[in-house]
Amino acid sequence: MPVASAVTALLAVAAEEEFDPNDVTPGVEGFVITFIVMAVVLLLVLDMVRRIRRVNYRAEARERLDAEERAAAGGDGSGAPTERPGGDAASDLPPSKPE
Asked: CA 52 to CA 66: how far, in whole Å?
């Protein structure tokens, strides 16, 4: 019963205290800080999207250049491994699981 009486006393003291809205609201400063954090996050997301697009465009350009080089060298452009002097074409492939 000591726990129940302690909880009852705590609730009675809490009910008697005056509610001050200035103690529980963020105020203008809180909203300004929240807006600044939101703006920084937005700028970071835009920068990340720009960098991801740049990486994708570079990969596409590299693939096109590789395809042009294969076509100029007489390859069929299918992406199939070709015989290399002194090497095995199958060595470029990932290992496969036995069936």
From this structure: 21
Domain extent listing, the chain: 26-65
What average pLDDT does range 22-44 have in this prediction?
91
Amino acid at 55: V
Q: Which of 84, 93, 2, 44 is nearest to 10 (CA)?
A: 2
Report the distance separating Cα 57 and Cα 51, nearest Å: 10
Question: Residue length, the chain?
Answer: 99
Say if CB 75 and CB 83 are below 8 A apart: no
Question: Do the beta carbons of residue 90 and residue 81 sit within 8 Å?
Answer: yes
Q: Which amino acid is at 17?
A: E
Average pLDDT, integer, range 62-87: 74
Residue 61 identity (one-letter amino acid): A
